[in-house]
Design brief:
This protein is α+β, with helices and mostly antiparallel strands. It folds into 3 domains: about 10-70 and about 115-160; about 75-115, no CATH class; about 160-315, no CATH class. Helices cover about 35% and strands about 25% of the residues. Helix 1 crosses helix 2.
Length: about 325
């Protein structure tokens, strides 16, 4: 998945502060030397080899590269047992003391790590004026990306309509939101989006997650009818695969993130042309979602759909 090719998953952020021209080279990625004791390395790289970071007026494209060495646990355990047997035989002992066993385990882990190549993961990103797009929806990866961006002077926060409107994120009974800005407002919006026909839950190869009281229900396949049944029982959707005029995509409601979007792009041409086309499609989809949120939430406190707002408040108070 990425911004230039493949299925597009993206998280959107509002930029709070940033230098006019971020110095990505100041935190450029450095490979781990063979046999190094370091286990991790992270930094910036151009979106394409030897390409410039700046690709337009106030638009910068980059990749965040993460290399990590993770020794195989089974190999470490086997090597530890071999070291224990060798030391016990040399010392004429039946058992190795616990403290020494832990030291041998650390030694075995270090040996395996030095022979293990790092695993590489990339996250593509675009800094477009006062907006930041990262091609991932993984919470842990997003945190690492934002930390690296802060190191080059780019401070950004999640962007969602309720945050833009100044409304505080709200909890959803029985669900723990682990990310800043995640809110039940998004769940109510997704429910209104489906119920009022603005978008349709994918009826054949669909997928959805619904919070019902203290239980999270996962649906797969022909989910449309079952989804409405859960809505009638008071369920609130956490995510769903949607079909709309803008395309087919998965929408994560509490965080207002988009995943698995088939973004069209010119089959040939320069990579910046493909990036521009796919980014234009992504921005248009986000703008449509923003407009739908405003339209469906008109007249409700905090910008959440009014009917769902009243219902969820009643359930939370035990009415």
């Amino acid at each position: 998945m990425g911004l230039v090719s493949g299925m597009l998953s993206a998280s959107r952020f509002a930029v709070v502060t940033r230098p006019r021209e971020p110095d990505f080279d100041a935190l450029a990625f450095e490979p781990l030397p063979p046999g190094s004791e370091r286990r991790e390395s992270a930094g910036f790289a151009p979106l394409e080899p030897d390409a410039p970071y700046q690709i337009g007026p106030d638009r910068f494209a980059f990749r965040l590269r993460f290399d990590r060495v993770r020794p195989d646990p089974a190999a470490v355990a086997e090597r530890t047992r071999a070291l224990e047997r060798a030391e016990a035989a040399a010392a004429g002992l039946e058992r190795i003391a616990g403290r020494r066993r832990r030291e041998l385990q650390a030694l075995a882990e270090e040996e395996i790590a030095r022979a293990t190549p790092p695993r590489t993961h990339f996250v593509e990103g675009v800094l477009d004026g006062e907006r930041l797009y990262l091609a991932t929806t993984a919470r842990a990866r997003i945190g690492s990306c934002l930390a690296l961006l802060r190191a080059v002077g780019v401070e950004a926060h999640p962007q969602a309509p309720w945050l833009e409107a100044g409304a505080e994120p709200e909890p959803l009974p029985g669900v723990r939101f682990a990310e800043p800005g995640a809110s039940a407002h998004g769940c109510r919006f997704l429910r209104a989006l489906i119920e009022q026909g603005e978008a349709m839950a994918e009826p054949i190869a669909g997928a959805a997650r619904v919070a019902l009281a203290e239980v999270e229900v996962s649906l797969k396949g022909a989910v449309h009818v079952e989804l409405f049944r859960l809505f009638e029982q008071g369920g609130e959707p956490l995510s769903a695969k949607l079909v709309a005029e803008q395309g087919v995509f998965r929408f994560d409601a509490p965080t207002f993130r988009i995943a698995s979007l088939r973004a069209p792009a010119p089959p040939a041409g320069h990579w910046t042309e493909r990036l521009d086309a796919r980014l234009e499609n992504l921005v248009a989809l986000y703008e449509w979602l923003d407009a739908a949120y405003s339209r469906l939430g008109a007249g409700s406190e905090g910008g959440a759909p009014a009917a769902a707002e009243a219902e969820i408040s009643a359930r939370a108070s035990g009415a």
